[in-house]
Amino acid sequence: MEPLSIFDIYKIGVGPSSSHTLGPWKAALRFKDDLSGKTFDKIEIHLYGSLSKTGKGHATGKAVQLGLLGLEPETISVETIEITINQIRDTKQLNVNGKLIVFDPATDIHFHNYALPDHPNTLSFKAEEKGMVILEDTYLSVGGGFILKVGEPELKDRKVNLPFPINSGLDLDNHCKNTGLGVSAIVLENELHFRDRQGIDQATSEIFNTMLNSVFRGCYTEGVLPGGLNVKRRAKGINQKLLSGATFQDADEWLEAVKKSSNDFDSINRWISCFALAVNEENAAMGRIVTSPTNGAAGVIPAVLLYYYCFCKNKGMSDIQKFLFASGEIGCIFKKNATISAAVGGCQAEIGVSSAMAAGGLTEVLGGTDKQVLMAAEIAMEHHLGMTCDPVGGLVQIPCIERNAMGAIKAITASNLALSGNPADAVIIFDTVVKTMWDTAQEMNVKYKETSEGGLAFNLPVMPNC
Ligand code: SF4
After folding, report:
1. Which helix (H) or strand (E) holds 28?
2. Does ligand 1 have an atom closer than 6 angstroms to the CB of 279?
3. How, if at all, do strands 109-111 and 99-102 pair?
4. How many C-beta atoms lie closer than 10 Å to residue 423's C-beta?
5. Which one-letter DSSP state was computed for residue 97?
6. Among 280, 291, 299, residue whose Cα is nearest residue 331
7. What is the pLDDT of residue 153?
8. Has residue 464 got a pLDDT over 60?
9. What is the structure's pLDDT at 111?
10. Residue 461: is its pLDDT beyond 70?
């Protein structure tokens, strides 16, 4: 198995979907780079399977155009996205590697209502010069923003030998047993082989600040989400009630106020939902979020992390790092042994994995042993097994936004159960639930895998005009 860094799992991105927005965006960037130095006068994009069926609601067409322009999801000003997309539509021109070509999104992006055999999320790019194909590549968007160019290994340039290779929960447990180190300490030793300490500190603080700012923006933005379902933003109303309408200069000031606010069970429970809804409302509006491990599930980890930060004793950035290290490693194990793609495994692969990650991270910072960290992750996933992906209207709104609040609450409950239990008494171990999730993914009917052809997506009485 390819070694993975926790920063492969945690990526700064743009909503609404990691597999349908971020992955295709990265594939387009890669295709643009591969076109460098070549002469061409036409580009076509073909979207297949789930990328086609929910691609319009998931902004796949917009993502590939932004990628071909060379704009990076990590740094693009999200406010300029619609302006840029409208400009391409109106001028029918696209600037790729400094060359202006005729490009009409309505006719040059093709949505094929069937899947190719390799993967449910496949897209291909074709560049031509005077009718002759000069470059044609096919990519698989395999979940969480990861892409695979057909014919190449997934992480082809990665050459790293980790001191503590981790391919399963058992590996992690053995490393902890043999060294006496906790989960986050083991993960840190591995991460030091991907980047230096300063780089790790910088990356974790960027991840935390991006999560915090996505919650803050969501808590102070009102209105209706785009896409035609008429879904109203709710985080702002909850935040307003909990803070009695107070406003703040920035996210840090707001966070201090949250920490000092009422901490009875009901209020804390509302805060957790508020944090999760805020992130996924931002995600649905193509805002900046942290893919963790996917965009549809991007609210779970910030909600649990801010719950810990605001309402439990914490040691600031060192605890945030520990949380991200432990939770990120849980995500890596799911990616290696099962899937983090809803098009492959349904919503158990998104909300289920994020909930298991958050449960593990929270247990680590609350002082759990490595076995309790794994037990918490196991419990959280156990109660998401079989959860289908049925986004109404192909948008990442219903049931997705509320599912993040539910995933966060389950993560906290799973952590509490693990911390008050004895892992030696557990009948189901973490690796068993990972395998079960993968088995379930393979047996799940395809209509429940991000096609909008089953479940709530099928039963919505009036389809929106997206
Ligand atoms: S239903 Fe779950 S997996 Fe599907 S798009 Fe929504 S959050 Fe993602």
Report:
1. helix 23-34
2. no
3. unpaired
4. 19
5. T
6. 291
7. 77
8. no
9. 95
10. no
Chain-centroid distance of CA 190 in Å reads 22
Q: How confident is the model at residue 460 (pLDDT cuts 50, 70, 90)?
A: confident
Nearest to 405 by CA among 343, 457, 355: 355
Q: Which residue has the CA at smallest separation from atom 2 of ligand 1?
A: 347
Q: Which DSSP state fits 375?
A: H
Determine how many CB atoms are found less than 10 A away from the CB of residue 237: 14
Going by CA atoms, what residue is nearest to atom 6 of ligand 1? 400
- Determine the pLDDT at residue 300: 98
Of 67, 54, 56, 57, nearest to 24 (Cα)?
Answer: 67
Q: What is the pLDDT of residue 396?
A: 94
Here the tokens at position 464 are 């929106």
* pLDDT for res 466: 40
Mutate which of 231, 281, 389 for ligand 1? The one with the most ligand atoms within 8 Å of its CB, which is 389
CATH number of 18-149: 3.30.1330.90
Q: What DSSP string describes 265-331?
A: HHHHHHHHHHHHHHHHHHHHTT-EEEESS-STTTTHHHHHHHHHHHHS---THHHHHHHHHHHHHHH
Question: Mutation test of ligand 1: which of 339, 351, 388, 449 has the most ligand atoms closer than 8 Å to its C-beta?
Answer: 351
pTM of the predicted model over 0.90: yes
Domain borders along the chain are 18-149, 169-459
Rounded to an integer, what distance in angstroms lies between the CA atom of residue 48 and that of residue 41? 24
Bin 286: left if φ > 0, else alpha if -120 < ψ < 50, else beta. Answer: left
Instruction: Indicate the DSSP class of residue 233.
Output: P
Q: Other CB atoms closer than 10 Å to residue 29's CB: what's the count?
A: 21
**331, 290 in Cβ contact below 8 A?**
no
Between CA 339 and CA 277 the distance in angstroms is: 24
Cβ atoms 325, 203 nearer than 8 A = no
For the chain, percent of residues with pLDDT exceeding 70: 98
